[in-house]
Amino acid sequence: DAKTTQPNSMESNEEEPVHLPCNHSTISGTDYIHWYRQLPSQGPEYVIHGLTSNVNNRMASLAIAEDRKSSTLILHRATLRDAAVYYCILRDNGNTDKLIFGTGTRLQVFP
Amino acid sequence: NAGVTQTPKFQVLKTGQSMTLQCAQDMNHEYMSWYRQDPGMGLRLIHYSVGAGITDQGEVPNGYNVSRSTTEDFPLRLLSAAPSQTSVYFCASSAAVGTQYFGPGTRLLVL
């Protein structure tokens, strides 16, 4: 399974945009880029995923580099409720459903 | 829908005791997985199942057994608990290879 590299922590002020980077230089052509987040004392929850094109949903946007070796999760206006650990995960849409988690990025949001 | 439910929420065991962590989902998902999360770490895959009667090992399967007799249930058995198994355990389910939905977790302390 290909690995991802994320900064250990990031900080933001409330209502500012946040860009969470992820490097995945060994990504294969069939790997999807998934983002999950884990709020304190909860299980992880799905945020967004993409293959090649940038993706938007109600929670966030995902910007994928043209060579697919990096991606950025964008929270357009951070709120205190967005304080969480964000995991960038590569997932082969094959016949299994394994998610291989790294240590993620801990996002702190200040009022 | 209740989603993914886990019982118990918290358990204390003595070294050598056995127990079963329960996981159930009411979304008719084919895929179910068990993860453990140690303090300050990401989640690690223990076992997973792609359907009733089919299970396979993840990254850290030693000391754990699983079975999948129904689509809804995926129990995790600790055969002989050890202090190294102190962790938070998360169960997840998904429809085929899709978004995973996580349960609230079971906190296990082995003395």
Explain this structure.
- The complex is a heterodimer of chains A (111) and B (111).
- Helices cover 0% and strands 47% of the residues of chain A.
- Chain A is an all-beta fold and 111 residues long.
- In chain A, the strands form two sheets. Chain A has a five-stranded mixed β-sheet, with no helix packed on it.
- Chain B is mainly beta and 111 residues long.
- Chain B is built from no helices and eleven strands.
- The radius of gyration of chain B is 13 Å and the shape is globular.
- The N and C termini of chain B lie far apart (36 Å).
- The model of chain B has no long low-confidence stretch (mean pLDDT 93).
- Chain A binds chain B through residues 36, 41-46, 49, 87, 91, 93-104, and chain B through 4, 31, 33, 35, 40-45, 48, 50, 56, 58-59, 90, 92, 94, 96-105.
Which descriptors would you attach to this protein?
heterodimer, A: 111 residues, mainly beta, 5-stranded mixed beta sheet, 4-stranded antiparallel beta sheet, globular, B: 111 residues, 7-stranded mixed beta sheet, 11 strands, 0% helix
